[in-house]
Structure formats: C-alpha cells, structure tokens
Amino acid sequence: MNRKLLNSKMIVVLAVTLVLFMTTGVAEEERTDASGQWEYYLVDGGAMITGYLEESSGDLVIPSELDGYTVTVIYSMVSQWREMTYWECDGLTSLTIPDSVTNIDIWNPFKGSSLSYIHVADNNPVYIGIDGVLYQKQGSILLAYPGGREGGFVIPEGVSAIGDYAFSRCSGLASVAIPNSVSAIGDWAFEDCTGLTVVTIPDSVISIGFRAFGDCSSLTSISIQDSVTSIDMGAFTGCEKLTLSVTKGSYAEQYAKENNIPYVFSTE
Fold this sequence. Notes:
Shape: elongated
Number of strands: 22
Number of helices: 2
Helix content: under 10%
Radius of gyration: 19 Å
Order of helices and strands: HEEEEEEEEEEEEEEEEEEEEEHE
Largest sheet: 7 strands, mixed
Distance between the termini: 57 Å
Strand content: 25-35%
Strand order of the largest sheet: 10-11-12-14-16-18-20
Structural class: mainly beta
Low-confidence stretches: 1-27, 77-81
C-alpha cells in the first residue's frame, strides 16, 4: 500500500501520542477503519484522521464517520526541519470536508497537494469554503489555499489574517493581493512559494510571522508599510533576489539592516 500522508511513522506516533495525552490523558494505538482506507486515533470520543493508505485521485471526500465514530479532527504534523507534509498528493484535485469536522490542524494538512478546490459542507459550524479556498468563519482567517492553482489571487476584503502555512508550497502562485482588512501574516504563510515575485503589504498589517516568506526564491520586491511593528525571525530567509521597499526610520528599515536584507526607500 502506498502511504501518502504518513511519511515518517516514528515522528507521527510521537506527535500524535503527545496530542492525545494532552487532550485526553490517554494515548492509544493508531487504528485503520473497516474499509482499510483511513487511519485515525480516538480523541474525546471522536475520530482524528491522521492519514489514508490508498492513493486517491480526483475528488476526495472526508468521511463524517469511521467505524461509528464521528470524524471531528483532521490532523497534520511537520518535523522539526519542516520538510515533511502529509498531503503531498499529486492526484487530488478537490477535497470535501463534512460538517462534523470542527478542528483542522493549524499546520495546514493540505499544503503541498495538487488540490484546486476545497469544498466545505454548508452547515459546518467552524469552517467555510469560498471559491474553493478554506477560511475560518469566526474572525475570517484564511486557512488554506489550494496548492494546485496557478496565477494570481486576490484575498477577499474582510479577511482579518493569513493563517500559518496558508499558502505554503503553492509553487504556482504568481501574485497575491492583500486587502486592508488583514492585520497579521502568519508563520510560514507563503513559505516555498517559488513562483511568487512581488507582494505589497497594506498599511493594515501589523505583524509578519516566522519564515512567512521563507524560500520564496523568485520574490524580487516586497513593499512594507510603517504599520508593521513586528517581523519574526527568518521571515525572508532564502529570498536571494529580494529587495525590501521601506520608509525611512521605520521598523522595516531597522529589520532590513539587522538582517542584511537589501532595501530601498519607498517614494510614496
């Protein structure tokens, strides 16, 4: 059987065991459902999906139940080197999340996949799909952008934050327009978006997370406004072509100096 999600058994078992211990106080063995397709753990009486065994192509529907247990969590884990992902599935084009799933791991378990569309059940209480992109309903956080899409993307007005790993490994993403409603760009948000060339950060943004644009090797220019008062470590690591556009005396200028990043002063 071809395991597409769980590429490092030891790391996954240790990580999931820790999660189980923290949430329930009891760790159990990983299970395989009766169909032989899904792998899961029981957490608080519900099923936490950790992977599947047979490679899927086309559409993938997350089940609402496994062996009589309601599926409530989709779980992902990355190694300490951030090299491992569980949804690098080249055959997938769309994914359907049922209304029972109310917890999707913050590390974006869909990153690195070939998905072009993420569906969410209309009555899901926590998540919503808008034009195939996954958002959190409360707070309007953009959680996952389909990795198989190419070209530019305009983030809708009203989105308050770009979540951790939201665009991670979206190699076909060429440009992104960030609206003035966004105040935070999460950790690893655009990491390894190798096709991304130019980004303008609006004056609503206050913080840019850890390795937010790490290894965006084609990135040539980012305009950072005075509103940004926090840029985490490694935000632009691996961006060898990058020149920051900043205002004189700003936090962004100081960050560029301290991290030896080329910069120019904005004319605006």
